[in-house]
Structure formats: structure tokens, C-alpha cells
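User: Quick sanity check before I run a bigger batch. Here is a single chain. Can you write out its predicted 3D structure?
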Amino acid sequence: MIARSLSRVWHRVRQFFGALRSRVTPTERAAAYHWLTPAEQTLFETMMLRDQQHGIVVLSRVRASAPHEDRALFAAALLHDCGKGHVTLWQRILHVAAPWAEANLARQSGSAWRQALWRLRYHPDIGANMAIQAGSDAETVRLIREQDKKPADPRLALLQAADDA
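Assistant: Done. Predicted structure follows.
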């Protein structure tokens, strides 16, 4: 129990410092674009750099474990956080470290910082709706929408495992 808690804390510390030095190389961007339609590429470009980088890492993990090439799954890996929009580091920390506080502060309308907390809290549904607007196929949309739900199938379980790794 203690080892698992310490492992989770260490994971979050690495995640924090990784967010401070986010970058996506032209080669990584080109590899990501291979799996996205032009409209999905535009959606990918609206994401914060740290979310783009994270999506590319998740894609790499999914591809390493997927039994075959699966464009819908790979697109979902890249776009699963597109609903977050622009959020600051302190908002991300609050989202992870104090979800109970976030629940009390998040608002769909009002001040920008409260809206950012709302987007963090509801980003799977927001992102799925953005993917629909970008013309993503139904399976990509489903995987984005269900990313935080109990996995009902191996593809969703694979996406969740890659996101949590």
C-alpha cells in the first residue's frame, strides 16, 4: 500500500517536471499527423503543447501494445485530452491533488479560471464533442468520451493503460 502510494507520488512529481519542459519535435508531429485527418490535425494544434506531447507519448504506448494498426484508437490516443483547452499548471495540480476542491470551484460559465477547472473535470465529454465537430469517426469519439469510465472493451482498456502509465 505504501509502496503504491509512493510510486503514484513519484509519477506525479515526474509529470510535473515534464510539464515544465514540454516539446514536440517536427518528426513527432509528422508521425502524429499520419494518424489524423486534416480536421483532426487542426484540433490537435489547438491543444496545449504539454497535451500534444502527452498524446504522442500515449500513442507510442498504445502502438506498442496494439495487436494491429487501429486508426480510430491511435487518433483517440492523440486527441483524448483535446477538451482540456488552456489550463495553468496550478489548475492541473488542483485537478489531480484535490479533486474535491476542484468540484466545488469548477463552473461552466464565469471567471476563466473556474471555466478551466470545469474543462479539466469534464474534458472527456468536451473533447468527444470537439472530435465530432472535427469529423472524427464514431469509434474515436467513443474512446475519447469513455476514457475515464470502466473499460468495457480491450481497446478502451489499452487507451486507459497507456494514459495512466
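The longest helix spans residues 112-133.

User: Great, the batch can go ahead then.
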